[in-house]
Specification:
Elements: H1 2-23, H2 37-44, E1 46-52, E2 54-55, E3 59-61, E4 67-68, H3 70-82, E5 85-91, H4 96-101, E6 107-113, H5 116-119, E7 123-124, E8 129-138, E9 153-157, H6 161-169, E10 174-178, H7 181-189, E11 195-199, H8 200-210, E12 214-216, E13 222-231, H9 236-249, H10 253-263
Helix pairs in contact: 3-9
Pfam family, one: SBP_bac_3
InterPro entries: Bact_solute-bind_prot3, Solute-binding_3/MltF_N
Signal peptide: 1-30
C-alpha cells in the first residue's frame, strides 16, 4: 500500500515538472520575463525609440522624414541586436522622461545626461557617450569669457543640463529657455539672445551647419558628464540587456566609426 502511494506521488511530481517545463519552453516566456519590455520587443519585433529631431549631431530629421545622427546610429544598432525594426518618436529635452513614464516609448536615446535627479525618475543605462557644455556666441561678440554672461540673455533648452547650469552657476545671467534646440539657435541668429549654452557635441553640429556665423567661447567645458539611455524604472531585464548591448557596442568598430563621423573623435576610454 505504501509503495503504491509513493509511486503515485512520484507520478504527480513528474507531471508537474513536465507542465513547468512546457511553460518555459520556446513557446512561452520563461518565468520572470513576462511584462518586460525586452520580451515585448522580441515578440513584436519592433523597438520604439525617443530621439531628437533637431539636435545635431545627436539626432536630426531630414526633409525626407528620415533620421540621422549619433544617437540614431546607436538606436539602429540596438534594434539590429534585437532583430527588430525601429520606430522613432521625436522628443525634446522637456518631454524625454514623460515619454518613458507614460510608456509611449521603449527607450529614450536622446543625449540624456546621467544626472542623479533623473535617475530618481527613470532607469539610466551605463554611459554610451561623454560630453561637456559650452557657450556659443555670434562671431565678433564681446562675450569672451563666462564672466561676461552676467547681465546678458543666454538661451538654453528647457529641461536640459545647460538650463540647470544657468540657474545654479550663472544666476546673474538672464536665462531664456526654449522648447527645442532649433528655437534656441534661431533666437541667437536673430539677436534675441546674446549667447546659447549647449553640449559641446550639439555646438559642434551648429558650427558645422552655420559656417563662420558663430564661435564657441574660449573657456573650459562646463560640467563634464556622461550620457545614458533612459528606460522606465522597474524593468531590470530590459536594463540588463541594454547595458550588455552598450558594453559590446562601445568597443565595436561601428561605435568608433559613428563617434568619428558625428563627434570627431574615437570612443573615449572613459565609457569603454
Amino acid at each position: 500500500m505504501k509503495l503504491t502511494r509513493i509511486l503515485a506521488g512520484v507520478a504527480v511530481a513528474a507531471t508537474a515538472a513536465l507542465a513547468l517545463s512546457a511553460c518555459t519552453s520556446s513557446g512561452s516566456p520563461a518565468a520572470g520575463t513576462q511584462g518586460s519590455t525586452l520580451t515585448t520587443v522580441l515578440e513584436k519585433k519592433t523597438l520604439v525609440v525617443g530621439v531628437f529631431a533637431d539636435a545635431p549631431p545627436y539626432g536630426v530629421m531630414k526633409s525626407s522624414g528620415e533620421y540621422e545622427g549619433f544617437d540614431i546610429d546607436a538606436a539602429q544598432a540596438l534594434a539590429d541586436s534585437l532583430g527588430a525594426k525601429i520606430e522613432y518618436v521625436s522628443t525634446t529635452n522637456a518631454n524625454r522622461i514623460p515619454l518613458l513614464e507614460t510608456g509611449k516609448v521603449d527607450i529614450v536615446i536622446a543625449a540624456l545626461t546621467n544626472l542623479d535627479e533623473r535617475a530618481q525618475k527613470v532607469a539610466m543605462s551605463r554611459p554610451y557617450a561623454a560630453e561637456g557644455q559650452v557657450v556659443l556666441v555670434p562671431a565678433g561678440s564681446d562675450i569672451t569669457s563666462y564672466d561676461d554672461l552676467a547681465g546678458r540673455t543666454v538661451a538654453a533648452t528647457r529641461g536640459s543640463v545647460p538650463a540647470t547650469i544657468l540657474e545654479n552657476r550663472f544666476p546673474e545671467a538672464n536665462a531664456s529657455l526654449f522648447e527645442a534646440v532649433a528655437d534656441s539657435i534661431q533666437a541667437l541668429r536673430s539677436n534675441k539672445v546674446d549667447a546659447l549654452m549647449e553640449s559641446n557635441s550639439v555646438a559642434q553640429g551648429i558650427l558645422a551647419d552655420s559656417g563662420e556665423e558663430f564661435v564657441i567661447v574660449d573657456a573650459p567645458q562646463l560640467s563634464p558628464s556622461v550620457v545614458s539611455m533612459g528606460l522606465k524604472q522597474g524593468d531590470q531585464l530590459w536594463l540588463n540587456y541594454v547595458n550588455n548591448f552598450i558594453l559590446n557596442y562601445n568597443i565595436s568598430d561601428a561605435a568608433n566609426d559613428s563617434y568619428n563621423t558625428w563627434l570627431g573623435t574615437d570612443v573615449p576610454e572613459l565609457i569603454k
